[in-house]
Write a structure and sequence with these properties.
With 157 residues, the chain is an alpha+beta fold. The protein is 27% helix and 38% strand. The chain has a single domain, classed as Thiol Ester Dehydrase, Chain A (Roll).
C-alpha cells in the first residue's frame, strides 16, 4: 500500500474526524524484539527468553515490548500519509497510550490511523492522530495511542 499523498497541510486538516489509512502488516520477529531489548536495556525474560516465556509467562510466548509497538507509530504514519513540502515533523507527545493485548514474537501488526484534529500553528499544523494497532488474528488491539505531531512547512524567519 502506498502512502496517501496530500497536496498540503490544508488538505490534511480537511481529513480531521475520520480514518485516513490502514497500513500494511509488519512482522515482529524475535530478532527485532531482542534488538529493541538491547537498545533500551530492557532485557526482561518475557521478551528475550522464548523458552522460559513459553513455559512460565501467562502469554505462552515471548512478547514484544509495549514501547517497541509504540515506537513503530512513526513508521506506520509514514505508511499512511505523505505531504510533500513538509520541512519537518516533530513528535510533540502522547495524550494517551494503552496496551490492551500482547504482541507475541512472530506476529504481524498493522495500524488503523485516524486524524482526530489538525489545527494551524505558526509555520505549520498540529495534528492529533489516533492509532489503533492490531495483531493479525487478534481479538483486541495491542496498542491504542493518541499521538500529537507538529508539521512545519514554512521557513523560520
Amino acid at each position: 500500500m502506498a502512502a496517501r499523498v496530500l497536496a498540503s497541510l490544508d488538505e490534511l486538516q480537511k481529513l480531521a474526524g475520520g480514518e485516513i489509512a490502514v497500513t500494511e502488516w509488519l512482522s515482529i520477529s524475535q530478532e527485532r524484539i531482542a534488538q529493541f531489548a538491547e537498545t533500551t536495556e530492557d532485557r526482561q525474560w518475557i521478551h528475550t527468553d522464548p523458552q522460559r516465556a513459553q513455559s512460565e509467562s501467562p502469554f505462552g510466548a515471548a512478547i514484544a515490548h509495549g514501547f517497541l509497538t509504540l515506537s513503530l507509530l512513526s513508521w506506520f504514519l509514514h505508511q499512511a500519509i505523505e505531504v510533500p513540502g513538509i520541512r519537518m515533523g516533530v513528535n510533540y507527545g502522547l495524550n494517551r497510550v494503552r496496551f490492551p493485548s500482547p504482541v507475541p514474537a512472530g506476529s504481524r501488526i498493522r495500524a488503523r490511523v485516524a486524524l482526530k484534529s489538525a489545527e494551524p500553528i505558526p509555520l505549520g499544523c498540529e495534528a492529533v492522530f489516533l492509532f489503533t494497532v492490531e495483531r493479525e488474528g487478534g481479538g483486541k488491539p495491542c496498542c491504542v495511542a493518541e499521538w500529537v505531531v507538529r508539521f512545519y512547512s514554512g521557513s523560520p524567519a
